[in-house]
Amino acid sequence: MYKILILGSLILSACVSSNTVYLRQVYYNAQTNEIVQCGPFTVLDYREERTVLASLSDCVEDYQRQGYERVPEPN
After folding, report:
1. Position 61 pLDDT exceeds 60
2. 10-50 per-position pLDDT tens digit
3. CB pairs under 8 A, 24+ apart, for 37-43?
4. Residue 54 — very low, low, confident or very high, per pLDDT cuts 50/70/90?
5. 10 Å Cβ neighbour count for 23?
6. Distance CA 75, CA 73 (A)
7. Residues 24, 36: contact at Cβ < 8 Å?
8. Beta bridge partners of 63
9. CB neighbours (10 Å) of residue 68?
């Protein structure tokens, strides 16, 4: 019974991931309408959940410094 609980908790912890954030340049080219994304980052990629969240934050901040702004998820 304990083995199942431990295995279950390991599987669930591996599934922790960040949201995906979409960004587009403020002065974007209307023809290409390029949208970039940050994430999702998962615990499988990193060792700790806070590192996942920091990676998402760093990615978004980097694009914002380049003139991108957050937009809703594209259809």
Report:
1. yes
2. 444 455 566 899 989 887 666 667 889 998 887 775 567 77
3. 38/63, 41/17, 42/14, 42/15, 42/16, 42/17, 42/18, 43/13, 43/14, 43/15, 43/16, 43/17
4. confident
5. 21
6. 7
7. yes
8. none
9. 21
The two structure tokens encoding residue 61: 């901040």
C-alpha 41/C-alpha 75 separation (Å) is: 21
Say what the pTM is. Answer: 0.68
Identity at 73, one-letter amino acid code: E
List helix spans (H) across the chain. 2-14, 49-65
Token pair listed for 22:
């979409």
